[in-house]
Backbone:
């Protein structure tokens, strides 16, 4: 009996989740209460409350005291590769291509750290050699959406604004261009996985939300790697588009 009830509750959760995905319950709309769910699916209110908790934990709804539950709303961020990487030529930040005029906050920390094995291999260093790291946490409309760590050869960038939190118009790529290392070729490797505890906390992710892990390498005209960037994206808010001329 217990197994049948558990299976029925899982089915009800899937039905309600699919209604959100299909737009039956629109973003920002009031979500059915525990009472309404119990009446529709024939559960007691305790089971219905647990279904609501599961949908809340997985990021489909939010609940505020006194106002009930609502479908979580957030306009997806469209990330177009490689088009977004040319914005520096117009003096803009790369993130401008993703979020436009939406309110954005960037937390930046800059400093040297030992190179990991993968970063060292890309930059032509030995593991543990010092690299300059620009670590960022991006929030859009007060919602954390991305973590990014970018790594550079210290001797290449030490005398440039890249070592400061504010790199000026066009960002890092404009500064690399000024010293003869403009990026002209990029490669990205993607995988989807569950977040590490530190990533989950930094992005304030609901339970069960995977992240998109992206490693981007940038090369100058002499095919020298001038940057390695490791990014962690909240998969629930990003839409990725890749373009190529054949």
Residues:
């Amino acid at each position: 009996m217990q197994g049948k009830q558990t299976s029925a509750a899982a089915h009800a959760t899937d039905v309600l989740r699919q209604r959100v995905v299909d737009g039956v319950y629109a973003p920002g709309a009031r979500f059915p209460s525990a009472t309404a769910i119990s009446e529709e699916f024939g559960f007691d209110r305790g089971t219905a409350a647990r279904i609501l908790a599961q949908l809340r934990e997985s990021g489909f709804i939010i609940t505020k005291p006194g106002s009930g539950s609502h479908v979580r709303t957030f306009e997806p961020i469209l990330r177009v590769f490689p088009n977004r990487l040319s914005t520096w030529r117009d003096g803009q930040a790369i993130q401008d291509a993703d979020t436009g005029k939406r309110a954005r906050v960037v937390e930046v920390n800059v400093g040297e750290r030992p190179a990991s094995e993968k970063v060292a291999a890309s930059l032509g260093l030995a593991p543990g050699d010092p690299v300059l790291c620009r670590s960022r946490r991006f929030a859009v409309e007060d919602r954390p959406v991305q973590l990014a760590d970018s790594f550079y050869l210290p001797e290449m960038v030490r005398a440039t604004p890249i070592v400061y939190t504010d790199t000026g118009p066009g960002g890092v790529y404009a500064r690399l261009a000024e010293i003869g290392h403009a990026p002209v070729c990029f490669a990205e490797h993607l995988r989807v996985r569950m977040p590490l505890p530190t990533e989950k906390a930094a992005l304030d992710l609901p339970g069960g939300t995977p992240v998109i892990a992206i490693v981007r390498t940038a090369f100058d005209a002499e095919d020298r790697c001038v940057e390695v960037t490791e990014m962690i994206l909240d998969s629930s808010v990003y839409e990725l588009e890749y373009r190529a001329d054949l």
In short: The beta strands are 61-64, 68-71, 77-81, 104-114, 130-140, 143-152, 185-193, 211-219, 225-234, 238-242. The chain has a mean pLDDT of 92. The helical segments are 2-21, 34-41, 45-57, 94-99, 117-123, 154-157, 171-178, 197-202. The domain at 2-71 is CATH 1.10.10.10 (Arc Repressor Mutant, subunit A).
